[in-house]
Amino acid sequence: MSKVMLITGASRGIGAATARLAAAAGYALCLNFRQRRDAAEQLLKELRSHGAHAIAIEADIADESQVVRLFGAIDAEFGRLDALVNNAGILERQMRLHDMDKARLERVFAVNVFGSFLCAREAVKRMSTRYGGTGGAIVNVSSIAAKLGSPNEYIDYAAAKGAIDSMTLGLAKEVAAEGIRVNAVRPGVIYTEIHASGGEPDRIERIRSSVPMGRGGEALEVAQAILWLVSDKASYTSGALLDVSGGR
């Protein structure tokens, strides 16, 4: 039986690139999306045309009941889960802290932190040998912003990703003896649509000179790191924070 992978926020960018690589590697897939049904269904059609066993499930991972429903759909369709890629994330428009209201902070932390925790919780329940599972791998998509802080732009997003780094380290130790490996990738400036959400679609062109390699990264380059971390090639790797950031 094919191994089963859940990718949250799979309709575009890093999530979609990861789905394509995972399908090519033989994984069965659950593609989670929140709003981009058209993009998710197009990706689903593409993957199925190449023989992949895949489903797409709409769910807002910031909502606990919807997370439970998402994992229930995986149980019903596949009966197992071997890998979770906690990729879904949001950021808000660029601004300094003194202009941020509580509602913004709640939105950013609800998806980037609480959603990742909830999905990891449900994944552990299914993967852990403590609960009758056969093990598995979790990869959290953090950000190099957790290290750099993103001053004057997104310090709330950076702080949320810092929480994901800490969760990665703690959870890796918590479930290591239960057959689960937990790691994170920390992408740098990557050519995806998320920059438009912050109000600057061409942000990478402005800041690329700050990247030692002198360019932005591609979603595929991050996806390749994710696929390595979930694979048996990384069988002795857990609690790692892998920077895919051009040297930043």
TrEMBL record:
<dbReference type="InterPro" id="IPR020904">
    <property type="entry name" value="Sc_DH/Rdtase_CS"/>
</dbReference>
<dbReference type="InterPro" id="IPR057326">
    <property type="entry name" value="KR_dom"/>
</dbReference>
<protein>
    <submittedName>
        <fullName>SDR family oxidoreductase</fullName>
    </submittedName>
</protein>
<dbReference type="InterPro" id="IPR036291">
    <property type="entry name" value="NAD(P)-bd_dom_sf"/>
</dbReference>
<comment type="similarity">
    <text>Belongs to the short-chain dehydrogenases/reductases (SDR) family.</text>
</comment>
<keyword id="KW-0560">Oxidoreductase</keyword>
<dbReference type="InterPro" id="IPR002347">
    <property type="entry name" value="SDR_fam"/>
</dbReference>
<dbReference type="Pfam" id="PF13561">
    <property type="entry name" value="adh_short_C2"/>
</dbReference>
<feature type="domain" description="Ketoreductase">
    <location>
        <begin position="3"/>
        <end position="183"/>
    </location>
</feature>
